[in-house]
Amino acid sequence: MMQVFHNKSKVIITCNKRLSPYLQDEVTALGYTIVRAFATGVELNITLTECIKLNLNLRCASQILYSIKSFKAVTPDDLYKEISAIEWEELIDFSGYFSVTSNVDNPNITTPLFANLKVKDAIVDRMKEKKGIRPNSGSDANKAVVHLYWKDADADVFMDTSGETLAKHGYRKIPGKAPMLEALASSVILASNWDRKSPFINPMCGSGTLAIEAALIATNRAPGLYRMNYGFMHILGYNEEDFFAERRILKDQVIKNVDLKIIASDLSEDAVEVTRRNAKTAGVDTLIEFKVCDFELTPVPEDGKGVVVFNPEYGERLGVHSKLELTYKRMGDFMKTKCKGYSGYIFTGNPDLAKKIGLKASKKIEFYNGKLDCRLLEYELYDGSRRAPLIEA
């Protein structure tokens, strides 16, 4: 019998592009040794049981994939043969449900959907032969999920221990307008080197993802507290006590009494209400001060250094709107006059608008928001006459 929950195997933890450095820090902080790091994730050698802890704790990850088999396959028929040889009856409930996802780059495959179909057929045929009944299959990722990686002749079949993506943290029931993905928001906060104690100011907060993630990070609330269904729960051999034991650890490690100032403001009353409701779902609404106001009127505590983070509209890549040009200039003026002693950050996908900020960026950190090439611009807002850095925004 396949003892996947107790046998070590190759595990790939994926993330969105440019989040890998922050994912690496998270994984090593949890005590795991990284075998290999790459642009969209890391590789470990661990058991499936150990994947449970990672699923519940990681903020920057997307999927955690446990390798079942690596093999060579040139044609779809090769793929079918190799997949059919796997003991699926010991992995998936024959009366249950599974879905197939893939990452395919093979000259004999014109669409990944065809590869998915081959994998599904191989599993179903094997189960029908061994058990006399076939499991149901479809596109829903809320039960068992099988993932195929196939590049040229190299193939890997994984059990996706996450199922639904980990990049969404489960508390944002109301998305709001153009929300920032939770995994990206976490990475932005980690990139800012915020000390989790000083003020965190989020003007133009939108649906509040940055402010809420800051509160979650500061109080050590892990994403696993907001989710009760993962891919690993639908793999044969799963022991639910392992999950609940890990979840008890998450609850125990929450920092309940924090002296913390997080301020989220927006000109839109609806946006602030969405932020408030999402924060309440996350259990951190009492830690955030909500303000309906123009960002220039956002209160900025003067007691010590802090972090101010903007995620403004980016506008069109071509033909920058004059209204947004003025907004970006006003953001620069606000940070320069109201945020002395703070570290200022503006997340934008529009380099032309960034030039209107009127401040010199000390650092430009690369991110993607979806497929859009973005930068997190860092500004050291010195309190006094200290010279500004010489890197142009």
Task: Summarize this structure briefly.
The protein is of the alpha/beta class and 393 residues long. Helices cover 30% and strands 23% of the residues. The strands form 2 sheets. It has an 8-stranded mixed β-sheet with strand order 2-3-1-4-8-7-5-6. The protein has a 7-stranded mixed β-sheet with strand order 11-10-9-12-13-15-14.
Side-by-side strand order of the widest sheet: 2-3-1-4-8-7-5-6
Number of helices: 10
Could you tell me the radius of gyration in angstroms?
Answer: 23 Å
The largest sheet is:
8 strands, mixed
Order of helices and strands: EHEEHEHEHEEEHEHHEHEEHEHEE
The first-to-last residue Cα distance is: 59 Å
Rough outline: elongated
Helix content: 25-40%
Q: Give average pLDDT, whole number.
A: 93
Uncertain regions spanning at least 5 consecutive residues: 385-391
Derived from helix and strand composition plus strand pairing, the structural class reads alpha/beta
Total number of strands: 15
Percent strand equals 15-25%
Task: Describe this protein's structure.
It is built from ten helices and 15 strands. It is of the alpha/beta class. The strands form two sheets. The protein has an eight-stranded mixed beta sheet. Helix 2 packs parallel to helix 7 (240-252). The termini are far apart. It holds the Pfam family UPF0020. Residues 11-65 form the RlmL ferredoxin-like domain. This is THUMP domain-containing protein. Residues 76-136 form the THUMP domain.
